Amino acid sequence: MPEILSRHRSLAVLAATLAAQVLLLAYQVKREHDVRLLRYWAVEIVTPGERAGTWTFSKIGALWDDYIALHSARTENEHLRAEVGELRLRNRELESQAAEAQRLSVLLNFRDAHTEAPMLAAQVIGASADPASHTLFINRGERDRVRRNQPVITPDGIVGKIVEVFPATSQVLLINDKDSGVGALLADTRTHGVVKGTGAPDPALDYVVNDEKVHEGEVILTSGEDRIFPKGLLVGTVADEKPGNPFQTIHVRAAAHLDRLEDVLVLLTHQELIPKETLNNRAAGSTGNGEPVRQEPTGVVQGLLEAPANGPPASSKAGAQQPAPQSRTAGAPKPAASAPSSTSPRSSAP
Amino acid sequence: MSYALNTGMQSDSNIEVHRYYGGAVLLVSFLALVIQAFLHRFGRWSGLVDLPLLVTIYFGVSRRNPVSGLFLGAGIGIVQDALSHDNPIGLYGIAKTLVGYLASSVGARIDTEHPISRFFLVFLFFHFHQGVLAVTERVLLNQSLPFFSPLLLMNSLASAALAVPLFALLDRLRRTS
User: Fold this and answer.
1) Which residue of B has its CA nearest to A32?
2) Whole-number pLDDT of residue A50
3) Is residue B4 part of a domain?
């Protein structure tokens, strides 16, 4: 190289001089947007290399990320799948616990509203193996002071009654079992009848004469005549009705979710359930004018009911047990079965 | 007037290399630039001749040293750029660098003492100078200076015609051995 330069010294000097002047010129000349030509050249020379380098590195990086580094993706994927499974399981547990807490909260509120009536919370632990039998087992028994014929309810409505008591468990006969019968009355007309199981998911209201006007959606309450369920508890509503012989055929939509019970309350008394507020109001009223206060048909349906204007008060005979269900309609035939005998045919035979 | 190669030193290729009195080259170059600037007062006629170009050619072909020729051309051209209104520094510098280098190279190979050869030499170098200017402006400045035009032809002829007596006048500055 030095030999070539010395041999062509004049050419080398010429080239250097020209290059210096070209650079000098490029430094002064400005292209568009006031960019100096020297900078423009520098960018034009350098950026293709940078672009090529960036492209190369991005391709190499993509090759590494998409192929070579994926050897651990399978293991990571398996770990993530396992983690997702665990999280789903945990989520289900939490959802279940939340639902249980919700149910227990409702039960607790119900108990707090009826502190005068002793009741026992119980969990449903099983059901009957016979598809035609609507019974279930709860985790409370004789040790918990559970006895036969004690009513079982939920905050939504009545469920059934205790038919068998074991040391730690009890068997409950649901109101839709064909052997069940509950003394009931229509809330609007005060017409009495018996809610009987038919073996179908929903029970029926029997012993209501054809002359009685029954409309769909009418509320049905316990009448207390069966000496098992306190008066005024919600049984359900009228699903549909049609004339029959000699009584109407009335299907009842049970208020309690009989097919998905998990937590229930066992009433340890037969007295009528009256919320604390009503008791307080009644106490205040009786001391004021000395007359007994009209007792509202309360219970699990407080606020739902309105007594008819010309009818007798729904619970004017507070605490009184009707000896047998009877229709208030004049000339109506008396129900064939009395409540105690009809509602618990199995009560004496487990 | 004898135009024989008889007044200078012999180069390696047996071509006479002329020497000048100290400061003569710089003084003549300076005067050429000053007079060229002064000619601008005469308007359009000032473009007829390019005295710095003529000086570059003369000293290039006379001294026959490419390195000194290109440096002289570069210096004259850069000063000419500096004296111009809006020329970027280096535009005339590049053109006159190449002219100085080529003139020195040509002067070492052919007879440049005869008036006719000087006339054609200046004519050709004028258009070469114009070509380099045009290329430089097109490439670097993105401007379209013409390579050739009748006006340029007339200017080149005028410069070549002026070069003959001017070169003869400058020959008097040569140092005799």
Assistant:
1) B142
2) 79
3) no
Which candidate from A17, A25, A31 shows the least CB-CB separation from B91? Answer: A25
Q: Is residue B11 part of a domain?
A: no
Residues B114-141 have pLDDT tens digits of 899 999 999 999 999 999 999 988 888 8
Residue B40 sits in a domain whose CATH number is: 1.10.1760.20
Q: Is B140's CB within 8 Å of A21's CB?
A: no
Interface of B with A in 4-23 (CB under 8 A): none
Residue A189: CB atoms within 10 A of its CB come to 18
Identify the pLDDT of residue A282.
Answer: 53
* Over residues A52-78, mean pLDDT: 84
Looking only at the bridges linking them, the beta strands covering A135-138 and A119-127 are antiparallel
CATH T-level topology, domain A114-275+302-337? Thrombin, subunit H (2.40.10)
In angstroms, the separation between the Cα of residue A60 and the nearest Cα of chain B is: 39
pLDDT of residue A280: 59
What number of C-beta contacts closer than 8 Å exist between A and B? 49
Share of chain A above pLDDT 70, in %: 75
Is B67 in contact with A31 (Cβ distance < 8 A)?
no
Per-residue pLDDT at A299 exceeds 50: no
Most confident of A31-45, A272-286, A288-302, B162-176: B162-176
Is B2 within a domain?
Answer: no
Task: List C-alpha distances in Å: A195 to A56, A158, A191, A211, A219.
Answer: 84, 11, 12, 18, 12
In which domain, by residue range, is B119 found? 17-175
Residues of A in contact with B132 (CB under 8 A): none
pLDDT band at A246 (very low <50, low <70, confident <90, very high): confident
Whole-complex ipTM: 0.75
pLDDT for residue A276: 58
Contact between A29 and B88 using a beta-carbon 8 Å cutoff: yes
Query: Distance between alpha carbon B32 and the CA centroid of its chain, in Å?
Result: 10
- Tell me, yes or no, whether B26 lies in a domain: yes
Can you tell me whether residue B177 is helix, strand or coil?
A: coil
* Helices H / strands E in chain A, number of each: 6, 12
Partner-chain contact A17 B74, CB within 8 Å: yes
- Residues with Cβ within 8 Å of B133's Cβ and at least 6 positions away in sequence, in order, are B91, B92, B95, B145
Which residue of chain A is at minimal alpha-carbon distance from B95? A18
Closest CA to A174 of A146, A195, A145: A195
CB distance from B27 to chain A under 8 Å?
Answer: no
Q: Among B101, B140, B141, select the one facing A14 at the smallest CB separation.
A: B101
The tally of domains found in chain B comes to: 1
What is the chain A residue with the closest CA to B91?
A25
Kindly determine whether residue B71 and residue A25, on different chains, have CB atoms separated by under 8 Å: no
Q: Does B88 touch chain A (CB under 8 A)?
A: yes
Bond preceding residue A2 cis, omega within 30 of 0: no
